[in-house]
From TrEMBL:
Phylogenetic placement of the source organism: Bacteria, Bacillati, Bacillota, Bacilli, Bacillales
Signal peptide limits: none
Classification via Pfam families: Glyoxalase
PROSITE patterns registered for this protein in UniProt: VOC
Domain VOC positions: 10-126, 167-277
Protein's name according to its UniProt entry: Glyoxalase
Length: 277
């Protein structure tokens, strides 16, 4: 079973405000390896497989720099199919002198970087689910140093573009209140699978290690950013069927829009609810 197809509910597309659309498209295509799916003067959709939109870049009127100490995006996470794919992109990013952070989370191996507007990006590969350690319905995750030598020892070729099987693995959000966020996301069908004290919470469907991360690292009660600020506009959740979608929409008071149902969490993070097309 994959955790990014039915019966799971999962993140598919993330929409971001940027301050310079041309610069961002260049970064996400040449450095990260996306392909352009569609574009106009104000927004560009990016894809890995040529069909599925994974990232939308929007330059709003009066675009302003990313605001600090607010709710919104901590990072979105690009899930690569294999360890070899992770090795290839490490070499590619190093060749372009991109500053990286890295961690071994036991369930996954991950890189961290930022786009030109300071939007956080994770690029990771999952370990096999049989390797994950569970105890009392919580999965064990750590922040250990990544063994670059071991990763680079995996069989791999030269990086050109993101593999076609690349997914939007998860999203991690700054929120104003963990308790309010947990209550809200339970209504969307998500269950807690890992807690970091009173600071962060990880939630998922179908026992994934997390489809959504939530934290209060920008401060309890942090305000929402302005609509023109670089950062998260909304993200899309894909539900397995119309019944699950309708239940989530009714539980949260989502409003029907042309593309599906739209709702904001208690911290004003926008969410588009859909079924797979």
């Amino acid at each position: 079973m994959t955790f990014h197809s039915p019966p799971a509910t999962f993140v598919e597309e993330v929409a971001l405000n940027v301050t310079d659309l041309e610069r961002s498209v260049q970064f996400y295509t040449q450095i990260i390896g996306f392909k352009v799916l569609s574009e106009n003067k104000k927004e560009v959709q990016l894809t890995a497989d040529g069909q599925t939109p994974l990232l939308k870049l929007i330059q709003p009127e009066g675009a302003s720099p990313k605001q600090p100490r607010t709710t919104g995006l901590y990072h979105f996470a690009i899930l690569l199919p294999t360890r070899g794919d992770l090795a290839a992109i490490i070499e590619h990013l190093a060749a372009h002198k991109i500053q990286l952070g890295a961690s071994d989370h036991l369930v996954s191996e991950a890189l961290y970087l930022s786009d030109p507007d300071g939007n956080g990006i994770e690029i990771y590969r999952d370990r096999e689910k049989e390797e994950w350690e569970w105890s009392r319905n919580e999965v064990k995750m750590t922040v250990d140093p990544l063994d670059f030598e071991a990763v680079l020892g995996a069989d791999h070729g030269q990086f050109n573009q993101l593999p076609e099987d690349t997914k939007m693995g998860h999203i991690h959000l700054h929120v104003a209140s963990l308790s309010e966020a947990e209550a809200f996301y339970r209504k969307l069908g998500f269950e807690p699978v890992c807690r970091y004290g009173q600071q962060a919470l990880f939630i998922s469907t179908e026992k994934y290690h997390h489809h959504i991360g939530l934290n209060i690292w920008n401060g309890a009660g942090a305000p929402a950013p302005s609509e023109e600020s670089a950062g998260l506009v909304h993200y899309t959740l894909i539900y397995p069927d119309e019944a699950a979608l309708k239940a989530a929409a009714e539980q949260t008071g989502a409003k029907q829009v042309e593309a599906g149902w739209f709702v904001q969490d208690p911290s004003k993070n926008g969410i588009l609810l859909k079924t797979a097309s």
